[in-house]
Write a structure and sequence with these properties.
This protein has helices spanning 3-6, 17-43, 45-52, 59-72, 74-88, 90-108, 114-117, 124-153, 159-187, 190-197, 199-215, 232-242, 244-265, 268-274, 280-308, 310-332, 340-352, 356-364, 372-389, 391-405, 409-414, 418-423. It has 424 residues and is mostly helical. The chain is globular and about 55 Å long. Residues 1-11 have low confidence and may be disordered.
Length: 424
C-alpha cells in the first residue's frame, strides 16, 4: 500500500487557507445542516416530550429513548454510506446523506401528536421513531464522509485545521439551532411552543437543505482517489479482519468525545430543566454558550494540532479533562448559586470538547484511503451507540437511583457526571 494511503491526507491539497475554505464550503455547510437538525431535536426535547409522551408512563425517558434509536442506527449508516464513499466517491455519499437528513428532519415537523390530533396523535410516536432512525443512518454518512473529505483535501500542515473546521461547523449548526429555539421560547408562550412553535425549526430545514444540496453537486474528489471494485462484503469483512486493532484503537479514541458531547453538552439543557435546577429559558442560553465555547475550542485545537502534532495535544488535553470534569459537573448542578456557576461550567465543558480534534486526527491516520470512510465510520459510530446514545438514559437512571438513597438532591445529581468520566 502506498505511503499516501497510510496518511490522513493526500498531500496534493491546496496550500492556501482561502482555497481550502472554499473547497470545503459545501461539506462544511452540510455538517452545519446535519447538526442543526440534531440540535433542534435536543433543543426542543421538553416540547417533544409533552407532545408525544405526555400520557406515557415513560414520560421522562421517552424522548431520550427516541434519541437513542437514532444513535443505534448510526453503525448501520456508517457501513451503508461508508461503503458508498469508499467505492464510488466521497461526494455522492455526502449528497445522499444530506438529502436523507433533510427529508427526515422536515418530516418530524409535520408529525401528528396528542396535542394537535387527539387519538390520531398515537400514530406520531412510531413515525417519530422511524424518522429518527433515518436521521441516525444519514448522520453517520454525512459527518464521517465529510470529515474524511476535509482531511484528504488539506495539505499536511492544515490537517488539524481542516478537521477542526468540520467539527466546528457541526457545533455552529447546533448553536444556530439552540439560539433559534431559545429565541422562540423567549418570544412565544409555553402553550404556543407546545402547540405549534416546536415544529417551525424542523420545517426550516427544508429550504436550508435545498441550498446545501445545490452546492454539493460539484465537490471534487480528493487526489489519489479512484473508484474501487471491491464489494461491500469485501470492504467490511476483510477490512475489519485486517485492521481489527486499528478499529479498537479508533473506538477508544472517540469514546470520550461521544460521552462528553451527548452526555453533557447536548444533555445539559434537558437535565437542568428536568431536575428543576434552572428555568427553561436560562438553560437554553447555557446550552448555547456551551456551543460557542465548543466551536472556539475545536477550531483552536485544530490549529494547535498543526503546530504541535495530534499526539502531543491529545496527551495534554485528555488527562486535563479527566482531572477537572467531575468537580466541574458538581458545580454545574449546585443549587442556590443563581446561574453563574452553570454558565462558567458550560464554557469549561465547551473548551474541553476540543479534545476530539487530535483524537480524530490520530484515528483517521490508522486506515488506508480505500477503506477509510467505512472503518473509521464504523469505529466512531459504534462508540456513539455505546457511549453517546446511552448517556442521557444512564445519567437519568443514576440520578433517580441515588435520589432514593441520598437525602441531598445535589449529591444525587452529581452522579450523572460519572458516565463521561468512566468513558474517558
Amino acid at each position: 500500500m502506498g505511503a499516501s494511503e497510510r496518511t490522513v491526507l493526500v498531500s496534493t491539497g491546496p496550500a492556501s487557507l482561502a482555497v481550502l475554505f472554499w473547497t470545503l464550503l459545501p461539506v462544511l455547510l452540510g455538517s452545519m445542516l446535519e447538526f442543526y437538525e440534531y440540535g433542534i431535536f435536543v433543543s426542543v426535547t421538553t416540547e417533544v416530550t409533552s407532545n408525544f409522551f405526555s400520557e406515557d408512563k415513560f414520560h421522562e425517558y421517552g424522548v431520550w429513548a427516541v434519541f437513542a434509536i437514532g444513535q443505534a442506527c448510526r453503525p448501520i449508516g456508517a457501513i451503508i454510506f461508508g461503503v458508498a464513499a469508499d467505492r464510488y466517491g466521497r461526494q455522492p455519499a455526502i449528497v445522499a446523506a444530506t438529502l436523507g437528513m433533510v427529508i427526515c428532519t422536515t418530516g418530524m415537523g409535520l408529525l401528528p401528536t396528542h396535542v394537535c390530533c387527539g387519538e390520531w396523535g398515537s400514530m406520531g410516536v412510531p413515525l417519530l421513531l422511524l424518522l429518527r432512525a433515518g436521521q441516525g443512518l444519514c448522520a453517520a454518512g454525512e459527518l464521517i464522509s465529510g470529515l474524511v473529505f476535509a482531511a484528504e483535501h488539506a495539505p499536511p500542515r492544515m490537517a488539524g485545521l481542516a478537521i477542526g473546521m468540520m467539527m466546528g461547523a457541526s457545533q455552529l449548526g447546533a448553536l444556530v439551532a439552540s439560539i433559534f429555539a431559545a429565541i422562540m421560547e423567549s418570544t412565544l408562550t409555553q402553550d404556543q411552543m407546545r402547540e405549534w412553535g416546536w415544529r417551525v425549526p424542523f420545517c426550516v430545514a427544508l429550504p436550508l437543505g435545498v441550498g446545501v444540496l445545490f452546492l454539493q453537486q460539484h465537490m471534487p474528489e480528493p487526489g489519489g482517489f479512484s473508484k474501487g471494485k471491491a464489494t461491500a462484503q469485501q470492504i467490511v469483512s476483510s477490512g475489519c479482519r485486517r485492521y481489527k486493532w486499528q478499529l479498537i484503537i479508533a473506538s477508544c479514541l472517540c469514546s470520550l468525545h461521544c460521552a462528553l458531547h451527548y452526555g453533557v453538552v447536548n444533555f445539559v439543557k434537558h437535565f437542568l430543566v428536568n431536575r428543576e435546577i434552572q428555568p427553561i429559558s436560562t438553560a437554553a442560553w447555557i446550552y448555547a454558550i456551551g456551543m460557542v465555547a465548543t466551536f472556539c475550542s475545536e477550531i483552536a485545537c485544530g490549529h494547535l494540532c498543526d503546530k504541535l502534532g495530534f499526539f502531543t495535544v491529545a496527551m495534554w488535553i485528555v488527562p486535563l479533562f479527566l482531572v477537572v470534569f467531575y468537580p466541574a459537573w458538581a458545580l454545574l448542578v449546585a443549587t442556590g448559586l443563581g446561574s453563574w456557576n452553570a454558565f462558567v461550567t458550560a464554557i469549561l465543558f465547551g473548551l474541553l470538547s476540543g479534545q476530539v480534534i487530535p483524537c480524530i486526527g490520530i484515528a483517521l491516520g490508522l486506515f488506508p484511503m480505500h477503506v477509510r470512510v467505512t472503518l473509521f465510520g464504523l469505529a466512531y459510530n459504534l462508540v456513539q451507540l455505546l457511549f453517546g446514545a446511552t448517556a442521557p438514559i444512564v445519567e437519568n437512571a443514576l440520578v433517580d437511583t441515588m435520589q432514593n438513597a441520598l437525602s441531598s438532591t445535589w449529591a444525587a445529581s452529581t452522579f450523572a457526571g460519572l458516565w463521561p468520566t468512566l468513558a474517558g
